[in-house]
């Protein structure tokens, strides 16, 4: 019989990689909580209409990339392609606007987009998503960007990333600038790639994002959206930049950074890397001051970002040196025979209840096999109990690397292991 494989664009996160995921998630929680963000957990699917209204009917995500289906009662549902629209839905539904503002929330988990899979791009991928609601002040924009950078700093990845910032004004700017851009691009249409010609008709701002070399000369000479900003948006952007400057945060102003979701106004930003090939955006976000109202809620402003976890994990894997040692169990308890097993079962349980990570053999394998297994697991100490030891209620404690052994009373074993457990294992110093 043939075996069944995972769906295209969907990955398993195997134990060898899961440690990195845990590191990323722990760093995120630590940084976000330092900035006063609380966790919110959201459903993986929503009514299709939420994303159509929130992200925009004409965006690539809504037009081409959603996993939508009718459930058994005929309602159209969609696996979330991002978290912002869902989070706004929850904000409105639960009346969270009564909380002291800004209301700061984060969430993490899988998102689904029917994109062409390649390295760093998947159909089920994972985001860390952060949103701050109800505060229009531009200092918040600078603070949110600082938090994003601090998260990467905590993982030792800050110097692998470049911050790009832009302002796309208000919704009127967007339509005025779109008209300008179309007027500029229309006569040059023949010089654009097929996809850009199609974008020109449907969603002209996306032309600015095109990476095809033949389009670059045209895009480079396109009018800048920054020249179309109304005075209030210009001032907002200047204050954001002043905030970043005050924190000595380096950035590039990138007037082509218009982002692929329709809800953005004013500040937009992205973190890019040169180390992941074509999938160079590790995080992206911006302000979306009209979105909550558009979804039927109060006219509260908002700003946020999402980080692509797979891409962070790829960067971490590149950054880690080969000396990286997995944090596995540190101790293996090796009973030789049934009676020794029965003596060690409660000892193992008691040690584990005190937070020690240990492996227990079942007494059926020979000592050399057990030691070999302990070695492969990378444990630091083996505790061996055979009939001789059992008779004296003792154990042999063996340091795996040196092979040095000593005896100690079984009654003292857990305390001894706890003391030893505080010492770092090989390769773990400084982690
Ligand atoms: P986004 O730019 O569509 O923004 O996605 C954010 C990040 O998710 C990207 O920079 C990338 O790292 C990762 N990502 C996106 N698609 C994929 C994929 N197919 N495979 C792997 N990683 C991917 C948003 O989703 C907005 N909701 C961000 C936001 C929050 N804006 C305001 N608040």
Structure description:
- The protein has helices at residues 15-34, 48-55, 60-64, 84-93, 138-154, 171-185, 194-202, 216-220, 231-246, 291-294, 309-319, 338-353, 367-377, 387-392, 413-421, and strands at residues 38-39, 45-47, 67-70, 76-79, 103-112, 124-133, 161-167, 252-253, 265-273, 281-287, 302-308, 331-335, 358-360, 381-385, 394-399, 405-409.
- It is of the alpha+beta class.
- It has an 8-stranded mixed beta sheet with strand order 1-5-6-11-10-9-7-8. It has a 5-stranded mixed beta sheet with strand order 13-12-14-15-16, sandwiched between helices. The protein has a 3-stranded antiparallel beta sheet with strand order 2-4-3.
- Helix 1 (15-34) runs antiparallel to helix 5, helix 1 (15-34) packs across helix 11 (309-319) and helix 5 (138-154) runs parallel beside helix 9.
- It is elongated and about 90 Å long.
- The chain starts with 14 loop residues before the first helix and ends in a 10-residue tail after the last helix.
- Mean pLDDT is 93; it is low at 425-431.
């Amino acid at each position: 019989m043939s075996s069944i494989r995972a769906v295209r664009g969907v990955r398993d996160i195997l134990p060898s990689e899961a440690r990195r995921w845990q590191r990323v998630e722990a760093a995120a929680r630590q940084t976000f909580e330092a900035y006063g963000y609380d966790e919110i957990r959201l459903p993986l699917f929503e009514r299709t209409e939420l994303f159509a209204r929130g992200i925009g009917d004409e965006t690539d995500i809504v037009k081409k990339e959603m996993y939508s289906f009718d459930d058994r009662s005929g309602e159209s549902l969609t696996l979330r392609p991002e978290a912002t629209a869902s989070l706004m839905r929850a904000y409105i539904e639960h009346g969270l606007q009564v909380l002291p503002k800004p209301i700061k929330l984060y969430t993490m988990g899988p998102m689904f987009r029917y994109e062409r899979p390649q390295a760093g791009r998947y159909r089920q991928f994972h985001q860390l998503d952060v949103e701050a609601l109800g505060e229009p002040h531009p200092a918040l924009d600078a603070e949110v960007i600082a938090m994003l950078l601090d998260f990467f700093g905590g993982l030792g990845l800050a110097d692998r990333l470049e911050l790009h910032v832009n302002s796309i004004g208000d919704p009127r700017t967007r339509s005025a600038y779109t008209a300008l851009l179309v007027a500029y691009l229309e006569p040059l249409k023949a010089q654009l790639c097929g996809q850009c010609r199609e974008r020109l008709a449907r969603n002209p701002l996306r032309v600015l994002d095109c990476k095809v070399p033949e389009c670059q000369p045209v895009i480079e000479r396109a009018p800048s959206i920054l020249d179309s900003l109304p005075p209030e948006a210009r001032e907002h952007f200047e204050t954001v930049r002043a905030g970043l400057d005050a924190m000595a945060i380096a950035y590039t102003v990138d007037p082509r950074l218009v982002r692929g979701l329709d809800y953005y106004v004013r500040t937009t930003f992205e973190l890019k890397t040169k180390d992941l090939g074509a999938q160079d955006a590790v995080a992206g976000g911006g302000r979306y001051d009209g979105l909550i109202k558009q979804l039927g809620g109060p006219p509260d402003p908002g700003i946020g970002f999402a980080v692509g976890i797979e891409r962070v994990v790829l960067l971490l894997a590149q950054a880690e040196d080969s000396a990286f040692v997995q944090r596995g169990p540190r101790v293996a308890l090796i009973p030789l025979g049934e009676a020794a097993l029965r003596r060690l079962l409660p000892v193992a349980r008691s040690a584990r209840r005190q937070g020690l990570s240990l492996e227990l053999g079942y007494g059926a394998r020979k000592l050399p096999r057990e030691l070999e297994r302990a070695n492969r697991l990378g444990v630091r100490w083996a505790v061996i109990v055979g009939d001789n030891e059992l008779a004296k209620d003792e154990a042999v404690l063996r340091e795996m690397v040196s092979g040095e052994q000593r005896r100690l009373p079984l009654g003292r074993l857990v305390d001894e292991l706890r003391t030893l457990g505080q010492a770092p294992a090989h390769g773990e110093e400084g982690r």
